[in-house]
Amino acid sequence: MYIYTDYDQQLLNERVAQYSSQTERFLDGKLTEEEFLALRLQNGLYVQRHAPMLRVAIPYGMLNSKQVRTLAEISRDFDKGYAHFSTRQNIQFNWPSLPQVPDILAKLASVQMHAIQTSGNCIRNTTTDQFAGVARDELADPRPYCEIIRQWSTFHPEFAYLPRKFKIAVNAAAEDRAAIKMHDIGVEIVKNDEGTLGFSIWVGGGLGRTPIVGENITDFLPQKYLLSYLEAILRVYNRYGRRDNKFKARIKILVKALGIDAFREKVEAEWQHMKDTEMDLPDAEIERMKAFFTEPAYVTGLVDDSAELQQHRASTPGFDAWIKRNCNPHKKVGYMSVTLSLKATSVAPGDVSTEHLFAIADLSDKYSFGELRSTHKQNVVLADVRQDQLYELWQELKALGFATANIGCLTDIICCPGGEFCSLANAKSIPVAEQIQRHFDDLDYLYDLGDIELNISGCMNACGHHHIGNIGILGVDKKGSEFYQVSLGGNSGRDAKVGKIMGPSFFENDIADAITKIIDVYVEKRIEGESFLSTYERVGMDPFKERVYAA
Predict the structure, then answer these.
(1) pLDDT of residue 392
(2) What are 182-186's contacts with CB under 8 Å, separation 24+?
(3) Phi-psi category of 331—alpha, beta or left, where left has phi over 0 and alpha has psi -120 to 50?
(4) How distant, in Å, are the alpha carbons of 7, 69, 152, 391, 400 from that of 395?
(5) Which single residue of 142, 205, 213, 458 could bond 475 by disulfide (Cβ 3.0 to 4.6 Å)?
(6) Using one digit for the tens of pLDDT, what is the confidence trace for 67-125?
(7) Residues contacting residue 349 through CB under 8 Å, at least 6 positions apart
(8) pLDDT tens for each residue of 300-336
(9) Using one digit for the tens of pLDDT, what is the confidence trace for 22-66?
(10) Strand 197-203 versus strand 215-222 pairing type
(11) Are residues 464 and 416 in contact, defined by beta-carbon separation less than 8 angstroms?
């Protein structure tokens, strides 16, 4: 992973000192609330329902064990003993006290972490596939390009005050695990007919109040133009994006209003001023960045699916189910990537206690070269686990509560913090997730259902990605009461789609029953081997609607 230079570290240390002074002046009454607002947002600090919330950046989800131990110490010493992994691959602390935030930032800086640009109308954390660099279906490692984008966008003076927040995702695998079409800019690493590596760029996607699937603005961009082309897109957005209405200010609204062809013309015209200039990305810089993402010291001579592993799988059904659900193929023979489920029933999705953060750090040292990744689906990945150590790891994960074999199942729920924490939320999310998890607690039944993505958001801001869940649940407020609206057919992958609203919303206590009826229809209507999403697309909304709203 990327290691800071002395220059990087000096920049970060200076920023911590600046914010410390700003906080001190605010607490002394020398800065008004309004003056302090922009300063704290630039450092990842929101004011939420009960306390400030500090969002810490995890660039493209990569962490080392030392950083995780520091996060654990912060959760213990400055919070209430836990942290929350968000859908932006970041981590959030829900209970820091405002005067202590500079101390937290200083502690983060000591392990090359920060909260810069995790909020505000700027370019946010660039996200990518949680299996980047080790996936078998990958064309190239996207992490060096993510780091290049990170360095270009951090502290970019021209894009510090965009019309609205701006999100970029990068994918290089056959399967889109980064939801690139649902981002302001989606970057896909591709090869042209000559076998040359470049980028296909998608623009104007996003969730929130007006969910829109992004459109392709160029199907092949040579590598050297990555930054100049991204800069051209941002300049067009910065110039023409609306600032009079925050709900109409995202780039997706601009692209939709202009049409992709007219938007592309503006970008191309702007790009002519920047291409083939000092904005070009030199091959040497790409190679320099790749050098930070070299392979760890993999053991050679291993085999896939050894006789010993097969024996463990045959004799221990729970282990076999965990392998099938929570382990992914690895590009190296004898290795797999392991997803730690943060979706055990009765635990808020994405939440991890102090003790468990320390334990995860230890596990990464023991089993995965001291590195781990956060996922946009709010789980944690140990990317490089030897297959001959899987059984031992599984036993340790079981003891910690991270071995729930439900990855990709109905109970692997993406869920925002909701009304219990977020001041923007209209309704609670966490109790709804728990209600569904308790109702669908039979793993064998979940395996029979196959892959189903269920996402929950507590408001239209869609931090829980409800629009792109196969089943989406949105908390809504009706005259001071909490209701939940259900949508079907959302998809975050290659065939990205926004789900359609099924009908009138439900009381909180009726949600699990409604989901049960939806699943019943799927089971009755599916043909052998058909997924929930395929069944929905074949039979349409009506059978589900008729069952759920039957008198």
Answers:
(1) 98
(2) 182/206, 182/207, 182/211, 182/213, 182/214, 182/465, 182/467, 182/468, 182/492, 182/496, 183/127, 183/214, 184/214, 184/250, 184/251, 184/252, 185/214, 185/230, 185/233, 185/251, 186/214
(3) alpha
(4) 43, 22, 43, 6, 9
(5) 458
(6) 999 999 999 999 999 999 999 999 999 999 999 999 999 999 999 999 999 999 999 99
(7) 342, 343, 378, 413, 414, 415, 430, 433
(8) 999 999 999 999 999 999 999 999 999 999 999 999 9
(9) 999 999 999 999 999 999 999 999 987 778 899 999 999 999 999
(10) antiparallel
(11) yes
DSSP of 394-458, one letter per residue? HHHHHHHT-----TTSTTS-EE--GGGT-TT-SS--HHHHHHHHHHT--HHHHHHH----EEEES
Q: What is the spatial distance between Cα 164 and Cα 422, in angstroms, rounded to a whole number?
A: 19
| Full 3-state SS string of 469-535 | CCEEEEEEEECCEEEEEEEECCECCCCCECCEECCCCECHHHHHHHHHHHHHHHHHHCCCCCCHHHH
Q: Which positions ≥6 away from 195 have C-beta within 8 Å?
A: none
* 538: its two tokens: 């074949």
Distance, CA of 68 to CA of 361 (rounded, Å): 6
Q: What is the pTM of this model?
A: 0.95
What type of residue is 174?
A
pLDDT of residue 352: 96
Q: In what order do the strands lie in the sheet with 500-501?
A: 414-415, 454-457, 471-478, 481-488, 500-501
Instruction: Extract the tokens encoding 63.
Output: 């962490």
Between the CA of residue 97 and those of 46, 119, 520, what are the distances in Å? 11, 18, 47
Using only C-alpha atoms, the chain has a radius of gyration, in whole angstroms, of 23
For CA atoms 326, 375, 476, 249, give the dihedral sign: negative
Distance CA 240, CA 162 (A): 11
- pLDDT tens digit sequence for 501-537: 999 999 999 999 999 999 999 999 999 999 999 999 9
In 3D space, the residue among 346, 407, 345 whose CA is nearest the CA of residue 379 turns out to be 407
Among 222, 198, 197, CA closest to 276? 222
What is the number of residues in the chain?
551
Among 221, 16, 232, smallest CA distance to 114 is for 16
Report DSSP letters for 300-343, one per residue: SS--SS-HHHHHHHHH-HHHHHHHHHHEEE-SSTTEEEEEEP--
Best CA proximity match to 404, nearest among 346, 448, 362, 456: 346
pLDDT category, 350, cuts 50, 70, 90?
A: very high
Distance CA 180, CA 176 (A): 7
Contact 55, 141 (CB under 8 A): no
**In this structure, are residues 390 and 405 in contact, taking their beta carbons and an 8 Å threshold?**
no
The set of residues, in sequence order, having a beta carbon less than 8 Å from that of 190 and lying 6+ positions away, is 139, 197, 198, 199, 200, 219, 220
Q: Which two tokens stand for residue 252?
A: 């997706």
Show the tokens assigned to 426: 């209209």
pLDDT digits (tens, 9 = 90+) for 265-309: 999 999 999 999 999 999 999 999 999 999 999 999 999 999 999
